[in-house]
Amino acid sequence: MAMMVKEVAELTGVSVRTLHHYDEIGLLVPDEVTEAGYRLYSDRNLEMLQQILFFRALEFPLKQIKEIVSRPDFDRLEALELHHKLLLEKRSRLDRMIATLEQTKRHMKGEIRMTNEEKFQGFDFSKNPYEKEAREKWGDQAVDGMKAKLVDMGEAGQEKLGAEMNAIYAKLAELRGGAPDSDEAQEAIGEWYSFLNRLGSYTPEAFRGLGQLYVDDTRFTNNIDKFGEGLALFMRDAMAVYADRLAGR
C-alpha cells in the first residue's frame, strides 16, 4: 500500500524535508505522484530508502550513493551483505578506540602502564578486511570518505563517553564473581545496553551477538579483562540473559 511522505517520515525518522531533497536530486523518486502533487511511496521505494540509510550510516555522500544505486549491475542483497560487514567492522573499531581511551586515562592516573603499541590500538584503519572489496564495488572516493569520518571524533565527546563506559565497566567488574542473572548484574548490564543504544541501534539479538564477540575476539577480551579478569565472559553471559528477557524468552 502506497504511503504519503508524512507517513514515510513518521515510519523511518527521516524528515519530510530530507525526503523532498532526495526526490529533487533524483536519489529517491516516489513511484507515484497524485494529480494534487502528493508524493506516494511504494514498498520498493521504502526498500531503497533503507538501502540509502545504510549507506548514510557509513558516511557515504549522497552523490556517491546515487551513483552506486543507479548502476545497472547494482545488487541490493549483495550491498546489504557488505553493509553488514562494514558496520560490524566500524563497531569493532569504535569499541577498540573507546577501550584504548579508557586505558589511556588509567595510564595517566598511574593505575596501569601502557606500551606505545597499546596507546594506539584502534587507530589503525589500514587493515579493514572488507576495504578492498568495498573499493572494488563502490570506488575509492566513497571508502576514503567513510574512513575519514571514522577517525574524526572530538576529544570532548570521547572523554564523556569514556567516563560513562568506565563507570559501567567498574560496576560490572565488581559483580563478576556473582551470578550473571542476578538482579544487580542485570541492572548493570541494562545500563550497558542503554549506553550502547545511545551510540547505535542494538536489537536484543545484536546485543547478545556483541557479548559473544567479547569472548570470541581476543582483542575485546584482553581490553575488557583489564578491568577485571573474567569480565568479558561475565558480560557475555549477562548480556545473553538480558537479551532473552528483552525478547520475552
Summarize the structure in words.
68% of the residues lie in helices and 3% in strands. The chain folds into three domains: 3-57, Multidrug-efflux Transporter Regulator, Chain: A, Domain 2 (Orthogonal Bundle); 72-153, Multidrug-efflux Transporter Regulator, Chain: A, Domain 2 (Orthogonal Bundle), CATH 1.10.1660; 156-249, Globin-like (Orthogonal Bundle). The chain is built from 13 helices and three strands; from the N terminus they run βααββααααααααααα. By secondary structure, the chain is mainly alpha-helical. It has a three-stranded antiparallel β-sheet.
Order of helices and strands: EHHEEHHHHHHHHHHH
Spatial arrangement of strands, main beta sheet: 1-3-2
Number of helices: 13
Largest sheet: 3 strands, antiparallel
Radius of gyration: 21 Å
Overall mean pLDDT? 81
Class computed from helices, strands and strand pairing: mainly alpha
Helix content: 55-70%
How many beta-strand runs?
A: 3
Looking at the overall shape, the CATH architecture of the largest domain is Orthogonal Bundle
| Shape, per Cα inertia axes | elongated
How much of the sequence lies in strands comes to under 5%
Q: What is the CATH superfamily classification of the largest domain?
A: Antibiotic binding domain of TipA-like multidrug resistance regulators
Domains (count): 3
C-alpha end-to-end distance:
33 Å
What would CATH call the class of the largest domain? Mainly Alpha
**Model regions low in confidence, pLDDT < 50 over at least 5 residues:** 124-130, 145-151
**CATH fold annotation of the largest domain:** Globin-like
Protein name: MerR family transcriptional regulator
Domain HTH merR-type: 2-71
InterPro entries: DNA-bd_dom_put_sf (IPR009061), MerR-type_HTH_dom (IPR000551), MerR_fam (IPR047057), TipA-like_antibiotic-bd (IPR036244), TipAS_dom (IPR012925)
Keywords: Activator, DNA-binding, Transcription, Transcription regulation
